[in-house]
Amino acid sequence: MDPGHLNRRNFLKYAGVGIAATQVSGFMSQIAFAQKESQAKASKPNILLITSEDNGPHLSCYGDPYVKTPNLDKLAGEGIRFTNAYVSQAGCSPSRSSIFTGLYTHQNGQIGLATHNMRMYRPDIPNIFRSLKENGYTTGIIGKIHVNPESAFPLDYHNLMGDFGHRDVRKEAEAAAGFIRKNANKPFILMINYKDAHRRFIAQQKGLPAKPLTPEDVKPLPEIGLDSPELRKQTANYYNCMSRLDSGIGMLMEKLDQSGKRDNTLVIYLGDHGADILRGKRTSYEGGVKIPLIMNWPKEIMPGQVRKELVSTIDLFPTLLDITGTKPVPGLPGMSFKPLFMDKSVKWRNYLFTEYHLHSGHNFYPQRTVRDKRYKLILNLLHGQINPGYDFTNNRFFKAGEIDQLVKASPMRIKNAYKTMHIAPEYELYDLQNDPYEFNNLAQLPESKEVLDKLKGQLAAWRKKTNDPLLNPDNLKRLKAEVDSCWDNDEYEKKQQWDYPDYFFSKT
């Protein structure tokens, strides 16, 4: 019998009458300790960390006019919805590395795709799964890890659930339910990674959504600034991915409710970065780095909150350490969300930082950014050079010349925005209050000098504080040479071994 279910009467029944009173007292002390330990284990919250691929805050609870996401809306209405949430870098592997380690990508080393053999500097960098496992948690992931080396993450359970062509959200919910049932008496952290809305944009799979949107139902995402039948088709299917995602999360939450663990489970939902469109994924624009973030925990979170604080995925690791009573990791740059759980005014950060290096060897264009409550500054480290990411996205998803023709027929502010993306100046400055989609670069205007200088100072201080390896111009040159070595004329070949982890912080 579990000692947590023994009281004095039951103990005497199971132990027999002939035991001395002192022995009974000793045994009862042991049982009391076991009960206390069992209660302590039970009180540790479970963590359900949900990520979706390649989507910004295009949900109905964020005001999107075309897609309906009732399950995510409900999750937000019963918890917290963050309106200014950001990833560290708009790429799958870099973004996940920051979720796992609480570090910026230039701090942990996962500056590009794991599938292109980029990696963290060291496998022993503290991460969510190792820390919580040491605190008695069962650890699991459904879907991809996508950070190297995978051996850095001690998982008790990993179910890849197939490739991007298979998006069976019912099976994903069943897999999660099986994991939860298996760990009925132990706290767990389970990360579930949904494949939607990764390219290709699949209109319908396994009957979901029941009524897919068509190009006639939508307009292109406003951050694109362009319109065409092809863009509307892709946008409709992007929204269909979001609808299927929402259905899957509804199924997942139903399984959690049925498990009886809902009240003591912190549910976190976020996108891993913005949509795979022009001026989205693989850029430092809002369309790339701004994400939906919802947190729900009936036991501890005041429902119905809409928080405007500047928050980042680097905050997730310190939050989970805080709420689970796990040993803190020194030196993390993020902040715990715990003070935000109740509807109170909280002193928070005034500046938020993101960055970009590369996704694969096709799109190396390193950037550093800072924003405050209103303005955002982008520093382009290869300013004046062609951004290869522009053609990379254009040529993969649109007919040859289509975007160029659309830009040519657009208003001047759209022309200028695409020109800036193609060959960027050193600095881009945007007023996010009046220009949320970053079409008007203010950096060269005399009246912007005060704001520009303030943000430049904040960005420089952050780079120094976080030991940015690209402050050293030699590192930038060596990294570019590594990228260039992937190419033989117009043929690209993956590097099998990247050297930057060895020289980024070398003093020789």
Could you list some keywords that capture this structure?
alpha/beta, nine-stranded mixed beta sheet, 3 domains, globular, four-stranded antiparallel beta sheet, disordered N terminus, Arylsulfatase, C-terminal domain, 508 residues
Q: What does the model show?
A:
It contains 16 helices and 15 strands. The protein is an alpha/beta fold and 508 residues long. Strand 11 and strand 12 form a beta hairpin. It is globular, with a radius of gyration of 25 Å. It starts with 7 loop residues before the first helix and ends in a 5-residue tail after the last helix. The N terminus is likely disordered.
Furnish the topology, listing elements before pairings.
Blueprint: H1 8-15, H2 21-43, E1 46-52, H3 70-77, E2 80-86, H4 92-101, H5 105-108, H6 128-134, E3 138-142, E4 157-159, H7 169-182, E5 188-194, H8 229-259, E6 265-271, H9 286-289, E7 290-296, E8 305-307, E9 311-312, H10 316-324, E10 352-356, E11 367-371, E12 375-380, H11 388-397, H12 402-408, H13 412-422, E13 427-431, H14 449-465, H15 473-484, E14 487-488, E15 491-492, H16 500-503
Parallel strand pairs: 1-5, 1-6, 2-8, 2-9, 3-4, 3-5
Antiparallel strand pairs: 2-7, 6-7, 10-11, 11-12, 12-13, 14-15
Helix pairs in contact: 7-8
